[in-house]
Every structure is written in C-alpha cells, then in structure tokens.
C-alpha cells in the first residue's frame, strides 16, 4: 500500500511503559475478521482500553486526555507475538505515525515499516529519559527526524540517533513500498524461478 | 582460496537470494506460500487495487483454519464475519487458480499441520505464511517464517519477499530427556531460560542429541515455538528421520525426483567450524515437565518449582507484577495443585498424532475430572482419522471426553471456543498472552502430558506421578 511520506515528525507522545506488549493486546484476535483494511483504530488496545460493557477504563493511557500525539512510546519488546499486520494498521488508523521503544519484535517492525509507521529503537537510557520528560510535562514534544536519523526531546534538547537501513529510509521518505520495487525486477525473478528445484 | 564453512541457514538463505541490496534487505525467492482466511483477504484486495496478478499460483496453498468451528462443520458457519472471510478465501483462490483445502475437504486442517503431512513442506525450501507459527516448518530444514499482510501481497505478486538476513544462533541440548519430558517441555524450558525476546533478530538452529533423537512431530513443536522467544524462525538439519517422514506423502517427490532431492537434502547441514552470532548449550537432564505462570511464554518453570520473585525473573518489576496480577498468582507460590477449569489439546504446536497419543497414555483407565471442560481438537482431518484408527478415540470416550473437529480453535479463540473471563486453562497451544483464549481468560501453557494430568485430576499435576 502506498502511504504518506515520512520526513520530520514533531509531536507530543503517549507513554506506555509496559514491557512485552504483544500484538494480541494491540488488536485482539476477535477483531481480525474484516476483509478490508479499515476501522481497526477503534479496537486498538481494546481489552486494556474498555471494560466488557464498552465503557472506557479510566486508568488506561489512551483514555487520559492529558496525553495525545502521533508518537506512541512503549516498553521493551514492543509488538511481540502474532504476525498480524492488523496491529500496525490499528496503530496507524488510531493516528500514530511513529512507535518508540528500546526493543521491537521483528515481524512487528517489518509490518510497521511496510505500512508507513516508523519504529524508532532507542537505548534503554534514552527511553527512560523520554518517559521522565513526558511524566514531567505531558505536552513535552519529541522530534523524530528520519533524514537525520535522530530523535530529540525538545524541552531538554537531549537527542539520540537511531538505525534504519538506507533502503527502508528511502522508501519511507518517498512513500514507496516493496511491491513497487519487486514489480520492477520481475524478469530477474522469472529467470531465478526457472532454475529453482521446487 | 579456502571456503568459509557455512551454516545450514546460510546455505538455504543464500541459495534463494535473487538480489542483495546494499545496506538493505535481500530479495528472497519463496518456494512455498501458505495462506489462510484471516491474513490474506486484504492482500488480495491490494493486488486488485494495483491491477496485479498472482505470479506463481502453483507455489501457494490455502487452507481454512483460524476462524473455523470445531463442531458441526457440515453446517453453514454461523458467525457472518467468519463466513465472509472463508468465502473470500474461496473466491480469491478460485479466481487466481490457487489450490484450496476449505472446510469439508479431507485435507483441511491447520496450515502448519497440513503442509508437512501432505508432503508440501520439504527440506531446503523457503516457506512463508501470514502467521507467526510458520516457523514450524523449520523442523524439515527449511527456512520458514511468519509475515504480515503487506508481505503476503508481495509474495503473491512476485513470489519474493524483501528481508534483512537475520543473525544466527545455535541452541544445543545435550544428553537425554527423562521420563515424562516431551518436546514441548524442551522448548518451554529454552524459552524460560532465554526470555520471550531472547532470540529476537536471530534465526535459531537446534542441534544436539535431544533433537537428533526427536520425532518429526516433536521437532515441529520446538520450531513452532521459536517465535515465542522472538526468533524469526528455527531450523533443524534434515536427517533419516526427516526423509522417512516425507517419503510417500502425497506431494513429496517420487522416483528419480526423490533420488535427486534426497542427494541435495543430504548436503543440508552446518559444516564443521561454521560460526554463529550466539550459541547456547543446555543439558537435557535439567528439564522438568514445564508450565507457565505468567502472560508471556518466557514466564515458565518446572512444574515442581515455585513462581519466581520479580528480581529473579528479570525485566521490569511493574510489568512482572501486572502479569501475575492478571493471572491471580503470587510470587513464591507453587503451581502444583492449582485449580484448572479448561483443558485444551490442539493447535499447530501440539495438534499432531503424537500429542493425542501422549494425552491418551495418561487418560487411559481414568475419568475426566468433574468441573473440567476439555476441548480436544485435532490439527487436521488426517490426524482425526489417525485418532480413530489407533483406538485413541475409544480411550477418550471411555474417559468422558469428546473429540472435536480440526482447526486453530481455542489457541487464539477466533471461533466459538473461548475460555471465559477469570477461568484457568491448561493449554497445549503456544501463547498465554492476556485474553489470548478469550477476553479475561488465564492460560497456563504445558505439554499434552501435563494437560492430560490436569484433565483427569482437575488441578495442576506432575504427569510423572500418573505414568
């Protein structure tokens, strides 16, 4: 799917300092029954966000009006478990464009990049600084600069650089995806397939 | 120039790299693509929106499993959303000429069970599916991993996927396992040692005596759970056990093609002196029957142990406490004797014939405990048939259990098989996440033997006392 280009994102952030947030929490399996890619944001973190009767849980961060923004900051090992891309869709559909953590599960990271969400992996120390800054001021802004590969806490000026391979960076900053790339090399794929044993 | 010794993983990966992009992913050719009803519809929609077609429909195989009921499969599916997904799979596969084993087809079953049992999964292949437990197929010496829906679209349209080559880890388990120790215990033990993120970024090769002696069913259980420690996949070098399992299966090579394939498969092993980015070695004698007490598969322990305190468990204390609170357990408590409301035997982890044989070995001559609801769900119709033919059904029936029909069932509870809020389930599936088996459900992961012991006693019980 083509998505919006990602260059520099300046936004407040929503803090979720929980480790091992698995994709079953991000979007529970019972909400995977759609055949189209829309509306998943309503059920983002469904069981953490709502009581069984549908009323919001006041102690969950998405229900706390002091926090908002396009950046979700999670604890270590964010996005573990199921390969469901619906988890990334739900995050995107809710309005997040970037997830920050000290560690991401592999499939989630790929899924996020494939649909235009930037996963930014920072050191545990910098993650702690981000949580501290948001705790001190829920309106604390983060600046995620993809071309420069840096993330900065505006209030303190503290900054850290993050890794992304240049191919994915090129795609994100231009709004391209892998399918565009693969379509352009079909002849190579055909000749490779002709030699394949299976 | 001397050649650098290669790992099994390198041999398979490198022989499938159509192109290597500098400081980017490799373009990896995919030999087998499995699809199911949940993660494929949006990918097909994507193809249509772009005006693309399926490049090699004969390399893709479809089955319905995640959403299917486990009773009355001959009747129309009641849930309209599930029915809609099943219908989408049927029409999409028909439109593009992809073989499809839908509900009612004698080959239908869970994708990771039917691939191997029909000879579709073979050594040296690259295999993907929009399901994280695709790692199962690594048991055959294949590179197999789960992908997202955008990647399903990629593979349908180009038979390739763009992936950064993972780092390599080898996990060696030496010695022999004791009485009552199953492959599920071996894998839950490894994950408890490495944590739920301990292998993230890696592809794991399993080596050593324990895996060499293990059946194919057992190897599939181990590779299946690789994802639960964050690994991209697990792989085990093919050997005589592998070849004997494959030979004669419907879609396996025959005649001269078999001989050619076999000659190639025999080269698929890690060479002496090859290096890994990380290595771990464990001793099989340290492994007890395992059970999980928390909300990720890394939170497991020997069944006779006590729940660790937060400091011993590692990670943040707040997350650990949140997890125990969800389960209604406390630090330092024993798990033995804890009440069990539900027992689930099945899933792509433990829904194979060997698992039902193990379950029946404990159940034989005993009765289902009062108050326990047991869901006994074969991984495929072929497994179901074996259960009947081997007399296992008679043992189950005599003990008061009912056999259901194949599917993913209560592993992810997308169908009606949901554990109610607050109830405790001993489950042979692969995930104990919050609400995994139904909103508010509490899951303890264990082997079929531990599940059987719970099913007949109604509490967490050491199966070694019953065998």
UniProtKB/TrEMBL annotation, chain A:
Its EC number is 4.2.1.33. GO terms for molecular function: 3-isopropylmalate dehydratase activity. Pfam families: Aconitase_C. One of its GO terms (biological process) is L-leucine biosynthetic process. SUPFAM superfamilies: LeuD/IlvD-like. CDD domains: IPMI_Swivel. It catalyses: (2R,3S)-3-isopropylmalate = (2S)-2-isopropylmalate. One of its GO terms (cellular component) is 3-isopropylmalate dehydratase complex. Residues 5-124 form the Aconitase A/isopropylmalate dehydratase small subunit swivel domain. Pathway: Amino-acid biosynthesis; L-leucine biosynthesis; L-leucine from 3-methyl-2-oxobutanoate: step 2/4. Keywords: Amino-acid biosynthesis, Branched-chain amino acid biosynthesis, Leucine biosynthesis, Lyase. Catalyzes the isomerization between 2-isopropylmalate and 3-isopropylmalate, via the formation of 2-isopropylmaleate. Belongs to the LeuD family. LeuD type 1 subfamily. Heterodimer of LeuC and LeuD. This is 3-isopropylmalate dehydratase small subunit. It comes from Chitinophaga oryzae.
From TrEMBL, chain B:
Keywords: 4Fe-4S, Amino-acid biosynthesis, Branched-chain amino acid biosynthesis, Iron, Iron-sulfur, Leucine biosynthesis, Lyase, Metal-binding. SUPFAM superfamilies: Aconitase iron-sulfur domain. Transmembrane segments: none annotated. Residues 10-458 form the Aconitase/3-isopropylmalate dehydratase large subunit alpha/beta/alpha domain. One of its GO terms (molecular function) is 4 iron, 4 sulfur cluster binding. Its cofactor is [4Fe-4S] cluster. The keyword Lyase applies. One of its GO terms (biological process) is L-leucine biosynthetic process. Pathway: Amino-acid biosynthesis; L-leucine biosynthesis; L-leucine from 3-methyl-2-oxobutanoate: step 2/4. It catalyses: (2R,3S)-3-isopropylmalate = (2S)-2-isopropylmalate. Catalyzes the isomerization between 2-isopropylmalate and 3-isopropylmalate, via the formation of 2-isopropylmaleate. NCBIfam families: leuC, PRK05478.1, PRK12466.1. Heterodimer of LeuC and LeuD. This is 3-isopropylmalate dehydratase large subunit. It comes from Chitinophaga oryzae. The gene is leuC.
């Amino acid at each position: 799917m083509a998505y919006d280009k990602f260059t520099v994102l300046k936004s407040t952030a929503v803090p979720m300092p929980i480790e091992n947030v698995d994709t079953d929490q991000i979007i529970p399996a019972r909400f995977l029954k759609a055949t189209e890619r829309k509306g998943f944001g309503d059920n983002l973190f469904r069981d953490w966000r709502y009581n069984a009767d549908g009323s919001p849980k006041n102690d969950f961060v998405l229900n706390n009006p002091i926090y908002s923004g396009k950046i979700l900051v999670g604890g270590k090992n964010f996005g573990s478990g199921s390969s469901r891309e619906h988890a990334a869709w739900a995050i995107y559909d809710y309005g997040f464009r970037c997830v920050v953590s000290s560690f991401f599960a592999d499939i989630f990271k790929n899924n996020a990049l494939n649909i235009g969400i930037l996963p930014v992996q920072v050191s545990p120390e910098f993650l702690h600084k981000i949580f501290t800054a948001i705790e001190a001021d829920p309106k604390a802004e983060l600046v995620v600069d993809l071309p420069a590969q840096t993330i900065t806490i505006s209030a303190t000026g503290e900054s850290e650089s993050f890794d992304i391979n240049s191919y994915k960076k090129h795609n994100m900053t231009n709004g391209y995806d892998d399918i565009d790339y693969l379509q352009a090399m079909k002849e190579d794929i055909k000749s490779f397939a002709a030699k394949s044993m299976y | 120039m001397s050649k650098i010794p290669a790992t099994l993983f390198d041999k398979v990966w490198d022989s499938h790299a159509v192109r290597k992009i500098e400081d980017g992913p490799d373009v990896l050719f995919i030999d087998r693509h499995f699809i199911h009803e949940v993660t494929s519809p949006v990918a097909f929609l994507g193809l249509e929106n772009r005006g693309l077609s399926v490049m090699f429909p004969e390399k893709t195989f479809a089955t319905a499993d995640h959403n299917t009921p486990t009773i009355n499969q001959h009747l129309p599916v009641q849930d309209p959303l599930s029915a809609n997904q099943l219908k989408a799979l049927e029409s999409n596969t028909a439109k593009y000429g992809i073989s499809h084993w839908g509900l009612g087809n004698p080959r239908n079953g869970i994708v990771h069970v039917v691939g191997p049992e029909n000879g579709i999964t073979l050594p040296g292949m690259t295999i993907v599916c929009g399901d994280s437990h695709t790692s199962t197929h690594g048991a055959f010496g294949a590179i197999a991993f789960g992908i997202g829906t955008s990647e399903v679209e990629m593979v349908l349209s180009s038979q390739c996927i763009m992936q950064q080559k993972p780092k390599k880890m080898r996990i060696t388990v030496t010695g022999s396992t004791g009485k009552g120790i199953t492959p599920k215990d071996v894998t839950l033990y490894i994950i408890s040692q490495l944590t739920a993120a301990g292998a993230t970024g890696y592809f794991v090769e399993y080596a050593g005596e324990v895996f060499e002696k293990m059946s194919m069913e057992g190897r599939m259980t181990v590779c299946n759970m690789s994802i639960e420690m964050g690994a991209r996949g697990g792989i085990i070098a093919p050997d005589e056990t592998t070849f004997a399992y494959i030979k004669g299966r419907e879609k396996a090579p025959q005649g001269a093609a078999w001989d050619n394939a076999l000659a190639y498969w025999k080269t698929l092993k890690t060479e002496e002196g090859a290096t890994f980015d990380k290595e771990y070695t464990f001793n099989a004698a340290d492994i007890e029957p395992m059970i999980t007490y928390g909300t990720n598969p890394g939170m497991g322990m020997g069944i006779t142990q006590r729940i660790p305190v937060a400091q011993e468990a590692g990670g943040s204390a707040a997350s650990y406490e949140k997890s125990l609170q969800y389960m209604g357990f406390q630090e330092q408590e024993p798990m033995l004797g804890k009440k069990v409301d539900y027992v689930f035997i099945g899933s792509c982890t433990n829904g194979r014939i060997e698992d039902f044989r193990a379950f029946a070995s404990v159940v034989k001559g005993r009765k289902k405990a009062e108050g326990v609801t047991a869901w006994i769900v074969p991984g495929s119709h072929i497994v179901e048939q074996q259960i009947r033919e081997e007399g296992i059904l008679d043992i189950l029936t005599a003990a008061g259990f009912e056999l259901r029909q194949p599917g993913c069932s209560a592993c992810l509870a997308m169908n009606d098989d949901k554990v109610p809020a607050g109830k405790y389930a001993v489950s042979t599936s692969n995930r104990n996440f919050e609400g995994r088996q139904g909103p508010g459900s509490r899951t303890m992961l264990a082997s079929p033997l531990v599940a059987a012991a719970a099913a007949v006693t109604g509490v967490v019980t050491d199966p070694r006392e019953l065998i």
